[in-house]
Design a protein that fits this description.
The protein is 14% helix and 23% strand. With 73 residues, the chain is α+β, with helices and mostly antiparallel strands. The chain has one domain (5-71): 2-Layer Sandwich (Alpha-Beta Plaits), CATH 3.30.70.20. The strands form two sheets. A two-stranded antiparallel ribbon has the order 1-4. A two-stranded antiparallel sheet has the order 2-3. Bound molecules: iron/sulfur cluster (SF4) (2 copies).
Length: 73
């Protein structure tokens, strides 16, 4: 059975809003959040959790180890 994501967690202290994770996700799961954080960064947010295939590409490309995909299991 295909893996499903239970949660996608972005660490607000590590993420610098570069949006690489948004660009590399092959399933358009992530999007730029609408609100800016207290450092002036637009962190990524989850647009469509059900579309996530838990491929971990976003994690592998994040330069700051700031995103983690938790699978259902
Ligand atoms: S790639 Fe990492 S640092 Fe860049 S926006 Fe995504 S989670 Fe944040
Ligand atoms: S694990 Fe894969 S499908 Fe899920 S958000 Fe990351 S890159 Fe997209």
């Amino acid at each position: 059975m295909a893996k499903k994501a239970r949660e996608i967690v972005v660490n607000p202290r590590l993420c610098k809003g570069c949006h690489i994770c948004i660009a590399v996700c092959p399933h358009s799961v992530l999007e730029k959040s609408e609100s800016v954080d207290n450092r002036g960064f637009f962190l990524p947010s989850v647009a469509d959790l059900d579309a996530c295939k838990v491929c971990h590409i976003c994690e592998m490309h994040c330069p700051d180890f700031a995103i983690r995909v938790v699978s259902e299991e």
